[in-house]
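Justification of computing resources. Each target in the renewal requires a structure prediction run like the one illustrated here; the chain below, 371 residues long, is used simply to show the kind of job we budget for.
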Amino acid sequence: MAHIAISLCGEGRGHATRIATLTERLREAHELLIFTSADALEFLARRFAADDRVRVVEIPGIVFQYTGGRLDVARSIVAGFDYQARQLGPLVDRLLRELDAFGADLAVTDFEPALPRAAARLRVPLVSVDHQHFLLAYDLSSLPWGLQWQAWCMGHAVWMYVAGAVDTVVSAFFRPPLRRGWEHVVQVGPLLRGEVARAEPRDGGYVLSYLRRHTPFAALAALADCGLPVRVYGLGERDPVGPVSFHAIDERRFVDDLAGCRCLISAAGNQLVGEAIHLGKPMLLLPERAHAEQLMNSHFLAGMRCGDFTLLEQVTPAHVRRFLERLDGFRPALDALAGRIDGTADVVRVIEHRLQAARRPAEPDAAPVPG
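Resulting structure tokens:
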């Protein structure tokens, strides 16, 4: 049994779901210490509360900033710099003590900056498992020029977050070629929780929607006018608006609703898109205008012919109805991918390979595990 320290960004559903999936597999043979914040802290602490091989510990984390209901990139960058100046140093010192007491054999991070620094100072091998490294490693030449430029700018933040990884794994529902110099990166599909992997898809005749906070009312009005019942998650429980019902986050119920929906109309997060592809669900993605990563995900999905997208701030009833009329056109591409994109086993193989290498310090092992 090895001792594995894991850290993850607390913002967004994707990081928490990815690490929960990985934890479910690793806990069978190892002891885990997880550091996180915000929504991910609540989700993981509740999910593994009764597991004596998993301990979830709160740390401060970076939080996206919103102004007037929209992602404020400038304020988010300023908040990130403030975090690095005021909190990162003390947090690294704290993690040094915790890793030493835990006896960490390996560190795994999903886009969190403190654990990589602490692991490097203690010479604990680090494996990076995230989505964001696609900004550095993937050939993005198929994207519009403006998004390519934004990817270049955002890639600098990835460098600041994670450095010194002995293995770099990128989890994404899309898989373009790797850039020159990044051939060592292991490309895997989304990490699917057991309940998603085991779910049986069906058509229950309703639309499922997962929306982020600050969704404008006009977007909800567009959903209400689509002609089908709509089940909305992410905005909390509230009174229905016509055929639109609002549900509190409940992971088991959400997975069941995802398996049973006719299609998904949603924010453009990598994890949920991957789950929907696995279950063969056509998607209309609603990326925020200022959220470049969501826009990139949306372009890749459209290029795969598994769905379409329109900006969250601009969606109209006509957009939604046009998408619903085209559902059959997305099914051939979805049928080719459904049930075939789970990357969990690939990531576990990378981690086990690295643990074996750490147990043989006298043997050079600089080469990454093949994907």
